[in-house]
């Protein structure tokens, strides 16, 4: 990648639109140079002369800049968002950060996510985290605080409250109850 191309991306320069497209390897999305989404890390970028080449390389068009001139179907976009959450649930995930990473606005992401999955992005993130924590509690002797931290919930009282809200058990009582079930 040339410094000129990098400056075009960081500066959202529309004069480079149509000259090249850039793809973000970590998200699987490709954009026009003028895309207003958060600039990617330079090492995660690939380049294509045409949108067709990016599509052939299995990259999806950005929802924000629409490099193919067409919208990505909502189901495909939300599948991409849920895949990202599934891989990165341990990180601090906010609606604004997800929207930026997935090239949309927070409002549109929230509304579309709920329409497609029947739950909010926060509900989905919490569900993934609690499922992972349940598996950890039964498969290893780690502390409750460590289990929370391993799933992205470093505030132990919040982790315990959320766990009980979602499962009906505190993490410790869940571990005791379900460990007994496995033994009988």
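^ structure tokens above, recovered residues below v
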């Amino acid at each position: 990648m040339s410094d000129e191309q990098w400056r075009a991306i960081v500066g959202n320069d529309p004069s480079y639109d149509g000259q090249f497209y850039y793809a973000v390897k970590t998200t699987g999305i490709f954009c026009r140079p003028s895309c207003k989404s958060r600039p990617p890390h330079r090492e995660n970028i690939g380049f294509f002369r045409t949108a067709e080449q990016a599509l052939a390389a299995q990259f999806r068009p950005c929802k924000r800049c629409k490099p193919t001139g067409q919208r990505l179907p909502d189901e495909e976009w939300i599948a991409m968002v849920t895949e990202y959450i599934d891989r990165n649930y341990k990180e601090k995930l906010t609606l604004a950060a997800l929207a930026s990473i997935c090239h949309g606005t927070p409002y549109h992401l929230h509304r579309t996510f709920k329409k497609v999955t029947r739950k909010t992005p926060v509900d989905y993130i919490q569900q993934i985290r609690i499922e992972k924590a349940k598996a950890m509690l039964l498969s290893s002797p780690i502390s409750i605080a460590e289990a929370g931290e391993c799933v992205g919930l470093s505030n132990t009282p919040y982790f315990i409250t959320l766990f009980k809200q979602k499962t009906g058990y505190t993490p410790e009582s869940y571990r005791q109850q379900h460990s007994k079930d496995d033994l009988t």
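Residues 3-61 form a domain with the DNA Methylphosphotriester Repair Domain fold (CATH 3.40.10.10).
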